[in-house]
Design goal:
about 190 residues; Aminopeptidase; eight-stranded mixed sheet
Length: about 190
């Protein structure tokens, strides 16, 4: 349920040392589709179905706008500051004014370079600035690279959520056990 009072708004754009994170726009559809959303390997452990067409990516952008209209923030696309190349996405998805979920997905060529950790750090700061007290993330129990990013980002493993989530790009679809990581931010 959206809040009935005014929450601090997140900026449409954030810059880190190497990344530009910004609110997605309709012009990003082709780059999102090509960089990561249609890649079977990249989307194995994500919670959304692999994009089969640009229409799927455009539908994501509509949902993104709804999040941004309803809450202080939503998804961000991740671009490299030096080249402008779109390499993934992250974001803060609000559930209540004080509780939100984050995550990240990166193109295969961007794996292992610290971009996910850098983007996650930006999302933690953004969430704190918007008044979030509990920021959490879930990942498939076997996806160790994602768990490692969360650990490097200061998130603590709270436990295993048994038979918690479907992963629509894995066979069978699930539900699968997930690791729940969270960070409590100062008030």
């Amino acid at each position: 349920m959206p809040p009935t009072y005014q929450l601090p708004r997140a900026p449409d754009r954030l810059d880190t040392e190497r990344l530009e994170l910004r609110r997605p726009s309709a012009e990003d559809a082709e780059a999102i589709f090509a960089a990561y959303a249609a890649d079977p390997e990249v989307t194995s452990y994500v919670g959304f179905p692999r994009h089969r067409s640009l229409d799927d990516t455009r539908a994501f952008l509509v949902l993104s706008d709804v999040q941004w209209t309803t809450w202080p923030a939503g998804p961000y696309v991740i671009r490299l500051r030096d080249t402008g190349a779109l390499v993934g996405s992250s974001g803060v998805m609000f559930e209540t004014p004080y509780r939100a979920q984050t995550g990240y997905v990166l193109a295969k060529h961007a794996w292992g370079r610290g971009y996910a950790t850098e983007a996650l750090s930006a999302m933690v700061a953004l969430a704190h600035g918007c008044g979030v007290r509990r920021l959490y993330a879930i990942c498939h129990h076997a996806h160790r690279p994602s768990a490692r990013v969360l650990e490097k980002g200061g998130f603590l493993l709270e436990g295993v959520l048994r038979q918690y989530a479907e992963f629509p790009n894995l066979t069978p679809v699930g539900p699968y056990d997930c690791l729940c990581y969270a960070i409590v931010l100062p008030g």
